[in-house]
Specification:
Length: 255
Amino acid sequence: MQRLISWNVNGIRAIYRKKKYEWLQETGADAICLQETKAHPEQLTGPQKNLPGYQAFFHSAERKGYSGVVTFSKREPERVIEGLGVDDFDSEGRSLALDYGDYILYNVYFPNGKSSDERLDYKMRFYGKFLKQMKALLDEGRKVVICGDVNTAHKEKDLARPKENSDTSGFLPMERKWIDQLLEAGFVDVLREYTQEGELYTWWDYKTRARKRNVGWRIDYFFTSKNLKDHLRDFIIHNEVMGSDHCPIELDLEI
């Protein structure tokens, strides 16, 4: 059994200060994928970058205090892939893959397109490059797990106020269509293998204290290639875990 955790922590030093490393270890996860770390390894203390029992693999943005991902892994990967091979994307430290041989685990912090038309274009180009690489892996017959903050809600039931956000990046038709294309290419949205219910969110706006009212968005996902569908064992949204404007999600995989 492989237990995988994904969490946009909105600052790795912040969740360490809030004593969330203890919760992460208590999960017994085989791999812990964190996004929006906002730190280079050399900026962290030993305890902040060395989770006992795990190897740490970082991909950080060139700009300090911005973006970044880290995967803590109990297993020794056969190969580590930093980025997508495009400088424009890789300079922001958004993608890290661990190839275990029996499957590849992608930890990805997809761009946010809300701030400007330029950032929305950047997001869509990132989406396009990533999808192209995933299709190539499927063509090779590989088993793939993708997790992270996708920064898009797929369906109306994936956010509390779809009508009000119909023209907002994160719920634009072209962004939602990209998730359709990922699924059509040969992936499954793991949550939707277990339930079609709405009001299951992973992000809530801090400024409006939206979490108390559960006015949220589901923008954090686990996707697996269809050749792993029979290996799915459980999926959990840990919305009781505080410490970030996102909550952790968990996939249990028999492999």
